[in-house]
Specification:
By secondary structure, the chain is α/β, with parallel strands linked by helices. It contains 13 helices and five strands. The longest helix is centred in the N-terminal third of the chain and has 20 residues.
């Protein structure tokens, strides 16, 4: 894929401004400037001035457009001026840190010679000079081009009214109390068998637990959750929020086994358990849908969960889930 295109000069931008004032078409402007029309469209999209307070002043101005272009290139040159910082960013991308995590941790640790933001890293990944490095392959969605990500379609089931999420206490909703979890089932190619993975995330710390299952039958799934969570103190396993899949229909076993209450999302509302949905996307980076789970041991899932729990998170002030989880255990214990 070629990302090369012809850069405009200040003189080009002055001519572009005057031609726009005369209502000349983009195709004709491109012909007169000797550029591809995609270059003109890109220039107008990126460097048109927007004044939200006084919209009448918005428009394309050659001087402002040139300054905006210079500033964009200046942000990219930060990483080129500091090879050590560039290498550090590349190493952490290859370790599956997100641009947001990298920028946030650099700021929190105060080790960077210059301040960089996530957008700078994204532009570095996708810019034409550094695109051949293939760093986009280390991002969660591995997109060759930046674009919006779609949402996964949820499953449904029959749940008693008094267990629906609208009845869940506010201190769970606002994450003010530790020990409330979200759970989901990661399904893989059916021709590879019924084996699946339960993913569970503590809402306040974003701490992740992963459990391998041999089938989608609900009671064995719940029994494995009980076995995994029994060693934790009761304040660390107060409740679980699931979707309406039949694999969670034996939820009352959690109350009998470890005294944990269950809550269920509304139909077609996966965003109501956003913590585990977000974690599932992270897991899929390492275990795509065509993974053969017969070759994956529980120990490997534990190791993957440990990796996820050791990554700094913006929502935690760039602390790691493991650090926050252990701090709450010590605080409440």
């Amino acid at each position: 894929m070629s990302l090369c295109y012809s850069q405009l000069t200040l003189l080009d931008r002055k001519r572009l401004f005057h031609l726009r004032e005369r209502k000349v078409s983009v195709s004709e402007i491109a012909r007169q400037l000797g550029r591809h029309r995609s270059t003109i469209y890109r220039e107008l999209k990126r460097n048109t001035f927007q004044d939200h307070e006084f919209p009448e002043y918005s428009g394309y101005y050659s001087g402002i457009a040139n300054d905006m272009s210079k500033e964009r290139r200046r942000r990219l040159r930060k990483l080129r001026r500091h090879p050590h910082l560039r290498d550090l960013v590349i190493d952490r991308l290859k370790a599956h840190w997100s641009p947001e995590q990298i920028a946030g941790r650099l700021l929190a640790d105060g080790v960077s010679p210059v301040r960089i933001c996530p957008e700078t890293i994204y532009r570095f990944i996708y810019c034409k000079e550094d695109y051949p490095l293939g760093l986009y392959q280390h991002l969660p969605e591995r997109r060759r081009r930046r674009r919006r990500r779609g949402a996964r379609k949820p499953r449904d089931g029959l749940i008693p009214l008094d267990y629906r999420i609208s009845q869940r206490p506010d201190f769970i909703d606002d994450r003010s109390q530790f020990g409330h979890w979200e759970g989901d089932l990661l399904i893989f190619r059916r021709e590879l068998g019924e084996t699946n993975v339960t993913s569970l995330v503590e809402r306040k710390s974003r701490y992740t637990v992963m459990i391998k299952n041999r089938s989608r039958h609900s009671r064995p799934i719940m029994d494995k959750i009980i076995h995994a969570f029994s060693p934790l103190p009761s304040f660390a396993r107060r409740s679980f929020t699931f979707d309406r899949g039949t694999e969670f229909s034996a939820f009352r076993a959690l109350e009998d086994g470890i005294g944990a209450r269950s809550w269920f999302c509304d139909p077609n509302s996966p965003w109501q358990k956003g913590a585990v949905e977000n974690t599932n996307k992270r897991i899929r980076r390492f275990m795509p849908g065509d993974t053969d789970l017969s070759n994956v041991a529980q120990k490997q899932l534990v190791d993957l969960a440990h990796h996820l729990n050791s990554l700094p998170r913006k929502c935690l002030g760039y602390k790691t889930p493991a650090e926050v989880f252990m701090a709450h255990l010590r605080e409440c214990g």
